[in-house]
Design brief:
With about 325 residues, this protein is mainly α. It has helices spanning about 1-30, 35-45, 50-60, 70-90, 90-115, 120-140, 145-155, 160-180, 180-200, 205-230, 240-250, 265-280, 285-315, and strands at about 145, 155, 160, 230-235. It is globular and about 50 Å long.
Amino acid sequence: MRVENKLRIDFNAALVFILIISFFLIANQNPAFLSGEYIISVVLKNAIEIGFLALPMTIIIVTGGIDLSCGNMMVLASMLGGIAAAKGGSLLGIAVTFLVGCACGLLNGVIIAKIKVPAMVTTLATMYLFLGIARGISKGVSIYSYPVTDFLGNALVFGIPIQVYIYIIWAVIFVTILQKSVYGRIIFAIGRNEGAARYSGVNTEIAVIKAYVLEGVMAGFAALTWIGRFTSLKYDAGTNLHMKVITVVVLGGTSILGGYGDMKGTIIATLIIAVLNSGLTVMGMPVDAQTIVQGTVLLISLTVYALINMQGKRKKRPKLQESGGEKMQPLH
């Protein structure tokens, strides 16, 4: 356990180094990037929805699962919430947004945990299901923001967007859940050996369902801030969002095979993606080139993780020590 904790610390330090280097390389090309207002209002703000979704996605991937539907889940919750708000006011809109998010997460969790359909297959199917429902309900027309979402998407508190404060609160909660709670230990146990966890008395099905419901809850928060920031939303807005979310989680050091992960690494990786997304745009770099740069950073971070992991395993191996007795003589 000490070696594993040391591995986490070493890799998180490497991520912070990548974050600092990325920031100053971009700032060197465009000094406007050093503006405090730009960092707060653009860099941090633009990564909030990805950050919200990446927190529970870390838990899901640690269990050995995955959620390809999170982006379309967010859009569906936002659309149904917007329709409800137009008919019954902001409170109804918020309630419907979270109910839809939780229902979508529950659907994924039950199919995966109870019916035993693999997570990738399940969430690939529900990704298209949520997309189709959103398109059918909206008939291809945009859904517009309402007062509460306008506030969550644009309000400033002491000059900082309110969603940044909300993200910090949730980040602390999720760090505590994964790294400090009994539920977090159960999640790691499921990811490393679900059968052994089940035989030890853990209700693995409920634990997995909770992870996907948490994704639905955070999809609700992401839905409210997203539509507030952009004032309108179309049914296909979240089509590729899941890839960015998974990239953040993997970049943060969570094993895509499950069993290992660190919420703090996910948070740092969210900042790295935020810096790259905003910084490369400021530099006027084409979208294709931005994708190449982000892929390169991901490869570098995974290579660093592999090297640190190898080093940790070497240190973990017990060293053979000579005993005080006589050495064995070779047989003739």
